[in-house]
Every structure is written in C-alpha cells, then in structure tokens.
Design brief:
The protein is α+β, with helices and mostly antiparallel strands. About 30% of the residues lie in helices and about 15% in strands.
C-alpha cells in the first residue's frame, strides 16, 4: 500500500474502465455551477449509445456524472 492508503494492486472496475475508454473521450469540457458542481458537456455528435452506457454504469461509479444540457 502506498503512503496515502491506496491499494495500487487493485484493478479498476469494469464501470470505471468503460467510463474512461468509451464515455470520457466524448466529453468536450467540464463546467461548474455556483455551488461548484461539475457538469460534463459532451460533443454534439455523441451517439445516444454513449449516454445509454453512462446511464447503465452510473450506479457503479463512485462519482456522479452530471450531463449539462443546453
């Protein structure tokens, strides 16, 4: 274990891998509201399958992905 207590031998979950490999590349930028909440802005040509995948894996992620809708 490293000094911060993070076990570096643990593999990321399938949800994290799917997010990093399939969802994150479609992110155009992240914006913040007045309360410092993150909102992800996706490219205009993002396939609906990416949003469906995000809906599917969201409960398994240990962070919230809020989609900014203009």
């Amino acid at each position: 274990m490293d000094p911060l207590g993070i076990d570096m031998d643990v593999l990321p979950s399938k949800a994290i891998l799917d997010y990093c490999r399939k969802v994150l590349p479609w992110t155009e930028r992240v914006i913040y509201d007045e309360e410092n909440n993150e909102y992800y802005v996706f490219q205009s040509d993002t396939p609906k399958e990416i949003f469906e995948l995000l809906d599917e894996i969201q409960p398994e992620l240990d962070f919230e992905v809020r989609v900014y809708e203009e």
